[in-house]
Amino acid sequence: MRITRTAPVLALMLAALPLAASAHTGVDAGLHHGLVSGFMHPLTGADHLAAMVAVGLWSALTARRAWPDLLWAPLGFASMLLAGALAGLAGVQLPAVEPMIAASLLVLGLLVLTQRRLPPLAAAALVGVFAVFHGIAHGQELAGESGAALTLAGMLAATVLLHAAGIAAGWALRHGHRWLPRIAGAAVALFGVALLGSTLA
């Protein structure tokens, strides 16, 4: 019963995410030092925070069963985020990183809004493509820092936590208040449109 009472609050918090902070670049002025700072970085950049929570929320809302459906998209995102971050640390450059991060919010927001179910591997692949760009952005910021490994570990831990928060909220809302995650999805999608406009301006 307690989960049912807290579900609307969780969903309203999700809907407010796009209002929380600015775009990715420069959120923390490039200051990454150690495990704690790495953990806090995704929590203080609204674009990353919204994307990671949206992945968990979408997974929970569209899962046919708890195991293993809940995990495909979050594992796809987390693993490809790590791969992208390691590539960024190694100096790999990809074009249109910021527009792709913005596009990820638009797409993920629409998936939450429509609650569109995809085959498990397709869901993991879709979010994984976007996660590479999120990871590249992190890795490029960390390049040349002595504590990059610890910082990256903190970022990955925060990513898993945000996925879990999205899953918990989505699972609680599967059979009631389904309009609340739709509002959250619309807010994330609009945030993505705004970011996309600013990156292409």
Structural write-up:
This protein is mainly alpha-helical. The protein has helices at residues 2-16, 34-44, 46-62, 72-89, 97-114, 120-142, 148-172, 179-200. Helix 2 (34-44) crosses helix 7 (148-172). The chain is globular and about 50 Å long. Mean pLDDT is 85; it is low at 1-6 and 11-32.
Derived from helix and strand composition plus strand pairing, the structural class reads mainly alpha
Rg on CA atoms, Å: 16 Å
The helical percent reads over 70%
The unreliable regions are: 1-6, 11-32
What is the topological layout?
Layout: H1 2-16, H2 34-44, H3 46-62, H4 72-89, H5 97-114, H6 120-142, H7 148-172, H8 179-200
Helix pairs in contact: 1-7, 1-8, 2-7, 3-4, 3-5, 3-7, 3-8, 4-6, 4-7, 5-6, 5-8
Brief digest:
This protein has 201 residues and is mostly helical. Helices cover 74% and strands 0% of the residues.
Describe this protein with a few key phrases.
mainly alpha; 201 residues; disordered N terminus
